[in-house]
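Researcher: Structure for this, please.
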Amino acid sequence: MCIRSVIADKYLYLESKMYLTGVVMALEMTRLSEKGQIVIPNEMRKRMSLKEGTRFLVVGLDDTIVLRRLELSQERMRLKQLLEKSRAKAEKVGFTEKEIDRLIHSYRKASR
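Model: Predicted structure, token format:
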């Protein structure tokens, strides 16, 4: 098997993998859709455990775009789960949004 390699700047390209100081990164091709969407290849999504709704920070510099996955801290995740459970219970009981706002306001006023 013949492996072609090219050294460009600080990167060494071997077949479809890019090596940068011991880190292996897969290289894949994708394209921009009419709606401005880019598909992240399935292999990368699986390897990085990316799911629908995963949020990214998008950084653009010259002709390069970098996507960086945003991860919520454990506290923010717990708060988000608590809010989801609370909303579901309030909806099940039949509270309206106005009633919930009024309860929050009265609780805050009483705790001052």
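Researcher: Any notable elements?
Model: The CA atoms of residues 9 and 60 lie 19 Å apart. Confidence is low (pLDDT under 50) at residues 1-16.
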